Amino acid sequence: MNSEALFQRALGNSFSEIQAGNIDAGLSILEMLVPQTNAERCGMKHAQALAAFRKSLANQAAFLFHEALDLVESADANLRLQMDYLCFLHGSGKVDLWRDELTRFEQFLLNPVNVFDPTLRAKGQILLGKFLEEDGDVCRALNIFFQVANLAGVSPLERVQALAQTLRIRAIEGPSEELGLIYAELIRIDEDQLYLDLNVEIQHALILAELPLVGTHHAWARLQNSMEMPTLPSIDKRQIIVDFIEETYVLGLELNPKIQELVVSLDGFDVFEEAVVQLLQNDKIFSLSQLNALCPKMSRGCFLRLLTLFLAKDQTPSLQNEVLNKMNLLLTGLSVESRAYWLARMKRFLSNESKTLRYCAVRKSVIYQNRSVDLSKKRIMFQLTTVPQIIDLNSDTVKLRSEVLLEPETTTFS
Predict the structure, then answer these.
(1) What is the pLDDT of residues 30-53, one digit of tens each?
(2) Which candidate, 336, 343, 388, 389, places its Cα nearest to that of 365?
(3) Distance between CA atoms of 88 and 100, rounded to whole angstroms?
(4) Cα–Cα nearest to 215, from 173, 169, 251, 170
(5) Is 289 helix (H, G, I), strand (E, B) or coil?
């Protein structure tokens, strides 16, 4: 084995140790290496940056990541580096930098000029999907997970990872044949055949899916089993527990009181997690001023989740309308399908006193309950928009008076 191959083998061992949480062991391997090329120097800087990130040395990690990015040469090395850099920005709470980098990462990953190892490309697509979801673009994320799960030649591990993300997101829709098939496949997987991170992802997805699809007892039992994993990282414990609390509130289910014991055993919560824990411990949501102060500190997706929890805990009609208005503004730029997902999560907390249609004067189309209709092709609906006594219409909003009832054929949307 030549010197270059030996270097890459040792570097790979260093990465494995750092990713497994054995940071000092990984750094000890790096101390024995002497890089000779830019590619080797880039690999070392990358490993050192990852170690600094795992040690919560944000400034040092940022410096090392930038040095590595200046040295990177191959497309695969660049993709691995950008993936870890994105995770660093996200984990460090650098929301604006993370969002900017996410755009660049998507352009780099999807550029047909760049040729990647197929398995690495699938990993990159899954990470992109997760972060698009984090930014609120849920349907684009689902499309990516679908592509990975159905890609010819994709690794079985990446396939089940994509399926787990799909099940976790779509479980709120309720039972369906498609979700049933995914669920049945995931629960039959032998955990001993999975590496730790993938097993955690699958168990996380199954916990959140079982809440609406099976019931709280099954979900709670699976959560308890997950917490007993001897090597489960604390960051994963926090995320699973907080997501469980959030989803229980959103679904209007009863929360197991033993969740408090799990929460007090953890620390290091990020801004969103801390907000959910505050809700659990105080049984009340924050004031509007506190809510607004949190917005710049978290991603759009996390803030939308927080708004939904606000609705779950505060049923004041006037506040409901204002939160819905805020939600609609934040959803600007997302697809109709992604907006539908977020509005579906909050619909059980909204009063039925009024209905709002989004109207586009240029296209002469309306979106109602997240489905679109071309008014120029729907004669009765077009007539309705010309009757001000029934519908108040301006450049972008149509509001139906609460007493107005439309016949079924006038409210059929394509």
Answers:
(1) 999 999 999 999 999 999 999 999
(2) 336
(3) 13
(4) 251
(5) helix
Best CA proximity match to 338, nearest among 115, 135, 87, 50? 135
Angle in degrees, CA 389, 391, 395, rounded to 5: 125
Secondary structure (DSSP) of 133-184: HHTT-HHHHHHHHHHHHT-TT--HHHHHHHHHHHHHHHGGG---HHHHHHHH
- pLDDT 10s digits, 349-366: 766 544 555 656 566 666
Which two three-digit tokens encode residue 136? 């609120």
Determine contact, residues 209/179, Cβ cutoff 8 Å: yes
Residue 220 CB contacts under 8 Å (≥ 6 apart), including other chains:
256
Q: How far is CA 209 from CA 163, 203, 311, in A?
A: 12, 10, 22
- Residue 413 near residue 372 (C-beta atoms within 8 A): yes
Tokens of 74: 């191959």
Buried b (16+ CB within 10 A) or exposed e, 61-92: bbebbebbbebbeebbbbbbbbbbbbbbbbbb
3-state SS, residue 199:
helix
Euclidean distance between CA atoms 98 and 322, whole angstroms: 29
CA 84, 89, 95, 99 torsion: positive or negative? Answer: negative
Nearest to 323 by CA among 345, 303, 308: 308
CB 95 within 8 A of CB 297: yes
3-state secondary structure of 397: strand
Res 379: pLDDT:
47
- Site of tokens 């049923």: 315
- CA pair distance 222, 17, nearest whole angstrom: 28
Other Cβ atoms less than 10 A from the Cβ of 4: the count is 12
Q: How far is CA 407 from CA 359, 378, 381, 404, 410, in A?
A: 20, 14, 11, 10, 5
Residues in the chain, how many?
Answer: 414
Asked if residues 164 and 191 have their Cβ atoms less than 8 Å apart, the reply is no
The rounded distance, in Å, linking the Cα atoms of 158 and 122 is 7
Query: What's the pLDDT score for residue 360?
Result: 62
